[in-house]
Design a protein that fits this description.
about 325 residues, alpha+beta, Nuclear Transport Factor 2, Chain: A, 2 domains, 6-stranded mixed β-sheet, 15 strands, globular
Length: about 325
């Protein structure tokens, strides 16, 4: 692909976000329509799921969010683009990750306003064709937003969760052209990690398996309900080990997009995989039910190892499949109203 074409795709998405974030609420549908294909598909976390067309995307997701979050601004930590390995590098996608921040002044998803600053952690993949966005995956950490609104659906997290920072070197905004060889190194390393993970049990000690592709002082920026964890030893103890112990019958990985640019890369699926909950997880007992995991993973490579990983998991969707509807709980919690 011509590097200039990749740069043009970045400019398209960046300009779209600038117009979307500064437009009046009444013009949101028009801005989306201007930058997207007529049959644009938008995939978001539960309860939004899959939406098609500018008007519905505006009415179902963006307008309620903008009405809830006064003076909302986008704080971008990572921005890059690349071609999709899953379709033999034939499609181009642009990735934006950070927080949508505003004053939580009106109710959203049954959550009552606080009148204080609130952050909605997000990551968005946009597929570009002929100068238009034709497909979007926008994942966000709704449980993190819930905690800020004084409702904690998952109080027994094994790790910590804070407002998550961007890359430690502060180099995540790839506005300029990047060396393609660096992007290839990143994608190759991500693929090696996926190969190790896909075996579920490599026969090696978990920490030694992780050391094949991860820095010793890796940071796994997990979602609320699981949390973030630091170093291989703590990651194995606080997430990877408990997760593998809790699940069986894990399906093969099924990504829609996997790409890289420079030292950054990532992927998403719809869902990425399925697994059966056969032991305790996140403080809840086994259900012996199979659940879907809708996930975005974003990675930063440092030299020849993965150093940081930002993860978005649709835990509301997963637990609803297990019989636990968090949004319904909020709606029926009189003490919260």
């Amino acid at each position: 692909m011509d590097p200039n074409d990749l740069q043009n795709c970045k400019k398209l998405v960046w300009n779209f976000h600038q117009k979307l974030d500064t437009s009046s609420v009444s013009k949101i549908a028009d801005v989306i329509s201007e930058h997207t294909h007529t049959n644009h598909i938008w995939r978001g976390y539960y309860p939004f799921n899959e939406i098609q067309g500018a008007q519905e995307i505006a009415e179902i997701f963006w307008i309620p969010l903008r009405n809830a979050m006064d003076h909302m601004q986008r704080r971008v930590d990572i921005f890059f683009a690349g071609q999709n390995e899953i379709d033999d590098f034939n499609s181009t996608w642009v990735v934006s990750m950070g927080h949508l921040m505003g004053l939580f002044d009106n109710a959203w998803l049954g959550l009552q306003p606080t009148g204080k600053m609130a952050f909605l952690r997000y990551c968005e993949f946009n597929k570009i064709e002929d100068g238009k966005i034709v497909e979007t995956a926008m994942y966000f950490d709704v449980p993190h937003f819930m905690v800020q609104a004084n409702y904690n659906p998952f109080p027994k997290a094994t790790a910590a969760h804070l407002v998550q920072p961007g890359p430690m070197p502060h180099n995540g905004l790839l506005f300029d052209q990047q060396d393609p060889n660096e992007g290839k190194k990143t994608l190759d390393l991500i693929n090696s990690m996926i190969s190790d993970l896909g075996q579920w049990n490599s026969g090696m000690k978990l920490e030694d398996e992780l050391r094949r592709t991860w820095c010793e002082d890796m940071i796994w920026w997990g979602p609320t309900g699981i949390g973030a964890t630091f170093t291989i030893e703590r990651y194995a103890k606080q997430h990877s080990g408990p997760f593998r112990n809790a699940f069986s019958e894990r399906s093969k990985t099924n990504h829609i997009c996997r790409l890289s640019e420079g030292h950054f890369g990532g992927f998403f699926g719809w869902p990425n995989f399925t697994a059966k909950l056969t032991d305790e997880f996140m403080g809840f007992p086994a259900t012996n039910k199979v659940g879907e995991f809708r996930v975005i993973d974003i990675y930063r490579r440092s030299q020849n190892k993965l150093a940081e990983n930002w993860i978005f998991i649709d835990l509301l969707h997963f637990w609803k499949q297990q019989g636990l509807d968090i949004l319904d709980q909020i709606a029926n919690d009189e003490s919260f109203k």
